[in-house]
Amino acid sequence: MIISASNPRIREARQLSQKRRRVAAGRFLVEGVRLINDALSSGVRPHEVFYAPEMVAGHTSAVDLLACLEAAQIACWACTPNVFRTLSETVTPQGIVAVAPLPVLPLPSCPTLTLLLDQVREPGNAGALLRAAEAAGVDQVLFAPETVDPFNDKVVRAGMGVHFRLPLRIMAQWDELQSLIPEASAVYVADVRAALPYDAVDWRRPATLVIGGEAAGAGPEARALATPIAIPMQGAVESLNAAIAGAVILFETARQRRQGCNGHALGIDIGRACG
Amino acid sequence: MIISASNPRIREARQLSQKRRRVAAGRFLVEGVRLINDALSSGVRPHEVFYAPEMVAGHTSAVDLLACLEAAQIACWACTPNVFRTLSETVTPQGIVAVAPLPVLPLPSCPTLTLLLDQVREPGNAGALLRAAEAAGVDQVLFAPETVDPFNDKVVRAGMGVHFRLPLRIMAQWDELQSLIPEASAVYVADVRAALPYDAVDWRRPATLVIGGEAAGAGPEARALATPIAIPMQGAVESLNAAIAGAVILFETARQRRQGCNGHALGIDIGRACG
Q1: Across chain A, what does the average pLDDT equal?
Q2: pTM to 2 decimals?
Q3: Which of residues 110 through 169 in chain A touch B, CB cutoff 8 A?
Q4: Which pLDDT does position A261 carry in this prediction?
Q5: Contact A135 B261 (CB under 8 A)
Q6: Are B144 and B214 in a shared domain?
Q7: B204/B200 Cα distance (integer angstroms)
Q8: A117 and A220: one domain?
Q9: ∠A170-A176-A177 over CA atoms, to 5°?
Q10: Domain ranges, residue A142
Q11: Least CB-CB distance to B248: which of A235, A237, A248?
């Protein structure tokens, strides 16, 4: 039983709340029964797990998970509730947190729909966008410079397991973009001032959608590359939340790909456009 | 200058953070320059305003707003920063808050698109849904029993002025629904398990969309009245955030109404369907 918050294992795990420590260690914290189960079911093997027996007791799902982790010979360290709370980032912790390898899922060889987050700073928005992206069929997500870290604990929680299933990459420089998306991919940026409505785009072609930040939208690098599109709005609303705007556009791409049309039949076969 | 937090005016205003006090007084708190400007530009006249000169000083937009309020002979009470903070619900207050009448905007005689929130508890979701609703052309929003109060400060902030522009009603009982939506309005409820895709619905007809809560979706009363629809999802995502799901469906209604089709031409004229 670990009883001191200055225990070296605990100290090392706690440092993973900082981005540079996560990058250096190649590890991040995965808190709570649901997220740890998501990791396991995606084939991710945690390095180690910390739990507070007092907090876990009586919660079947947590007890079952611990049994499963121990059966898989993953080191599970018991600690006191006070020690556990030094690792936890949640308001009502479930008493279990895993140290897991940062997922580096293989990028698709021919991405048909890329989401690029540029200067999105609010972790809840980034997490909601990741969930919407997976559900809408995005096949890779890129994080531009000056964007929230995808492995920030709040993004991970809001993402509800998507981090283990959808390939994510952090772009250190804008010129990496060319190596990450095929030339055939048209690039669009959501911009409330744009004249082109988002639903007039033919989303059956390979495409990249840039969603900009809450404060000032996308930066100049993204704008230089992308065609601006807007969601036509009624009333006096000035803008939509970044996650809402992104989801509305992403599900329009999914609708068009499912229905095979966008109302403007162009006869493009998405499966062959990248060939 | 009000220097005591127990000043009767301050005490009365502070109580408006409670729903029952808001209902009893017919008033609510509108905090910050932007929201107060939204109120004014929608023709709402605040009863009174509290501000902290020290906090407002140097912020042109706040100084201009105060000048405008005083020119309109609205009582503006100066108070100390500490007194002001007892009224403020924000982390970084701008130093100005208005007491405004609860808006009761007239309901449309023939609503073509009603949004009904049922058991949505998270104020940020409710506010984001209100913003999306206005932008997508919803003409009234109903709050079912057991749903967050629309005049909760967090909903008001997240709504960014929509409270002054979109007719909202709190339903005390489910049987009020019949008097608030026309019989011709089809009722749909977002339900992740539904077989009917949301984009197969003909949204050019008068319709009511029910969005259920984060935890368990819509309640039995709503389900009994409504046809379930789902947003088809890829990957392993179990559900979308309530605000995201609602916005995706609302903007599909807007898209169909703008394009005049949903891919299934039924020849209904939305303008005439309500007789």
Answers
A1: 92
A2: 0.91
A3: 124, 128, 131-132, 134-137, 160-162, 165-166
A4: 64
A5: no
A6: yes
A7: 12
A8: yes
A9: 90
A10: 113-259
A11: A248
